[in-house]
Amino acid sequence: MRKSQKGKRAGAGNITVPQEAESQREAINSLLSLFATKSSRKEYLEAVVERIGLWSGCRCVGIRVLDESGNIPYDSYVGFSQEFWEEENFLTITKDKCICTRIISGLPEPEDAPYLTPVGSFRCDNTKEFISGISEEGRAKYRGTCLRVGFISLAVIPIRYREQIIGLIHLADEREGTVPLTVVEFIESMSPLIGEAMNRFNLEEELQRDYQIQTVISKLVTISLEKIPLEEILERAIDIVFSVEWIAFQGKGGISLVEAEPEVLVLKVQRGLAPQIQEVCARVPFGRCLCGRAALKREIEFADHVGELYETRYEGIIPHGHYCVPILSTGKVLGVLNLYLKEGHRRYEREEAFLQVVANTLAGVIERKLAEKELEKTLNKLQRAVKGSIQTAASMVEVRDPYTAGHQRRVTSLACAMAREMGLPKERIEALRMAGAIHDIGKIYIPAEILSKPGRITEIEFSVIKTHPQVT
Questions:
Q1: Cβ–Cβ < 8 Å for 309, 218
Q2: DSSP assignment of 432-467, as one string?
Q3: Which of 38, 221, 319, 384 fits as disulfide partner to 343, beta carbons 3.0 to 4.6 Å?
Q4: CATH number of the domain at 21-204, out of 3.40.140.20, 3.40.50.720, 3.30.450.40, 3.40.50.2000?
Q5: pTM for the full predicted model
Q6: CATH no., domain 373-471
Q7: Residue 323 forms beta bridges with which residues?
Q8: What single-letter DSSP state applies at residue 278?
């Protein structure tokens, strides 16, 4: 039969739990002061964790925050080892079975019931006795990490905003009895205030993210309107994306495009990539490595570390993760945006939604620049054809009127020199060059016997010659 848990104090702690109303008011004022002076949720929770450590006397304190994907990472903690953090930081309420996932989901198991407080916190003075008192089947419902690293006292307290659980406070200590009921009840009384502050910070951070998203898209559209090469636009675009603070970028990555060869990605711009990566990723077929798979599947590829899906490896590679985002236009793959992440970064829907907007914006820019390039090629061909026609027409005039041969070229040269002196744009000067070369083209319609008549022409013949500008 299980032993009952007594509501005793943590005698090992240097600071006892505030019991009187005055002490509780001081604690509330302390939390309000932190909310007023801290600039972000993380900064606020780091300070809260320190306060809870003082109030409880527990060696280890952490605060998990529930995100939109169901992950419950530690936003702040003290005392836990790196090994413990690596094993416990990546829990999700949809896949993992443990006290933390059930408390934050509000779905405790029957084995948890004797250790729950009326408001839904879990409290255990001796985890060894707790685990020994349940069946093998029951033990499968617990990860057992806390017990394995030596934590005897354990408490998990939900953080609520109104009626919704948005996080939890995790207390752990190697000593028995360091989470008495008085400690847990006191922290429970502070939990709504912490939840209110967290919600306010969440709203502020969401507004800040929305503002940054609008700023990034605005900058991308602005540079796309500048008369600069596509590669320069892509270089500036990747720097703009890396300026986002709420995604754990490493500041490395690149943009690859599909060019003449179908289903092959060609690296066009990069930031911080190792020479080995630049060489291997210069040309990537669809389906190869993360970028190739993103192009083939036409969907975002994510990796939180250099794992088995990462085909491009070399000695000394720096640990990292990836977002590989396909750049699509009406289902056609134009390229892939490859962004390096800090190792262990979690996958978030809001980040992917933002990167998809970036990719869509880049798709519009790429399509327009490629269309401009094709149009420029067409215009160049047309200009060459027009110049050829003009040259032919000018030659015909000189053949028809050998006495004034070279006149059109001299007029053209003089007109262009005057235009340059006046500071006219090169398009206007080029138009003058073309017009000057054929300004006498009307002579083609003047009878050859008049243009080449030796000796003096008659008044009637001169009148006919004077009609050539009207024909032009």
A1: no
A2: HHHHHHTTTGGGGGS-HHHHT--SPPPHHHHHHHTT
A3: 319
A4: 3.30.450.40
A5: 0.68
A6: 1.10.3210.10
A7: 302, 339
A8: H
